[in-house]
Amino acid sequence: MDKNGGLVLATERYGSGQTWKYSVSDGVMKRTRDGSEAGLRSHSVVELFKSVFLPQGYPESVSSDYLQYQFWDTLQAFSSSLSGTLATQASLRGVGVGNQEATVAAATVTWLLRDGTGMLGRILFAWRKGSKLDSEAKKWRLFADVLNDIAMFMEILAPHFPACFTLVVCTAGIFKSIVGVAGGATRAALTVHQARRDNMADISAKDGSQETLVNLAGLLVSLLLIPLVTDNPVLTVSLFFLFTVLHLFANYKAVRSVVMETFNEARLSIVMQQYLKDRRILSPSEANQREPVFLQFGKTTPVKLGVRLQDVAQSPEELNLALKENNMPFLLGIRSGCICVCLGTDASVRDEIRAMCQAACVSNMLSCPTALKPTQQNLWEILHESQKQMDAHFSPFLKGELTQCDLLINLTLLDWDEWRVEWKTKNS
């Protein structure tokens, strides 16, 4: 029975939102909403906002970290919009807007050179780093935003150095082109992570709506800022640094809020080393919190996945050492301070995970303060010891506790190159 005395026949709801009920009274079926009149009005406004700016089926249709990420992403986009206004004003002043001695031809050439160098930078960066953007989306996302701030700062300073204005803005254009590639590609990777119903297009479309709304708000604020900063370089630089600090902080919080359930090199290494230490499997949240989000150069032993055979063994003796007591479809070697992994043609995803785990184990051994002096013979001994550790611990690591921690093992984001090797002889 409902509050009006009718018999409730059925109830329905749209997603996780407001519920309706069907009741019959005096032979007539009626459809009514649950809740008070004031609550219904406020709920209608919320539902309208959700339908315009959030993916259909929110929150069930997206990952649990979606709202937190979008909040920080919106804040960084707003601050970046304001910084961009200051940079654009400086660029226009630098090409001669407001200067009667400047010519249209000179300004056009400068603009074309900036766009042209940016196009070349976009192509070169996509060629060199395109395959890294999936596996290290967080790092490159944050890197792109830092580089974007550097580019805008260069544009603000450029008018004060007229002798090298074109060089500065062209360099900034290259940086911004890299930002465009890295930012767009990593946003696509994060969209794949957020989509829980294969609704990548809907999430991308609503993200575009959110960004448009933020840019509109930034435009309105910029209209108030422009009269204040015109011919006031000290205030321009001060506001730029304020917006940049907010931008970088929001970006850091955004990438830190992402909790990916798939393995990349960093997360797999973190989880495996923790397991070898105390036999505990980290949850996705714990692994993501420990994952570095800044690009690191030279701090750890690099790992190359999917290399040629000659990167692992350069003689029959070394090949025999790599095959010693090894029945796995991959080979490991250490060459020039780098751990190289050669993958067989019949290797599965499980084999790829094991190869990366062994590489992480070798890296841990090499970084140990008590490690042996890295002679070539000692390096092979380290590889054989890591192989024994994998034989003892990998199966319980993968089959036992790992599958209970919501970590996906049927799909990885490990950055494998395309070399595959089929070796003929295995010596025990």
TrEMBL record:
Coiled coil: none annotated. Keywords: Membrane, Transmembrane, Transmembrane helix. InterPro entries: RUS_fam, UVB_sens_C, UVB_sens_RUS_dom. The keyword Transmembrane helix applies. GO terms for cellular component: membrane. Residues 280-423 form the Root UVB sensitive protein C-terminal domain. The chain crosses the membrane at residues 212-229, 235-252. It is found in: Membrane. Residues 42-278 form the Protein root UVB sensitive/RUS domain. Belongs to the RUS1 family. This is RUS family member 1. It comes from Poecilia mexicana.
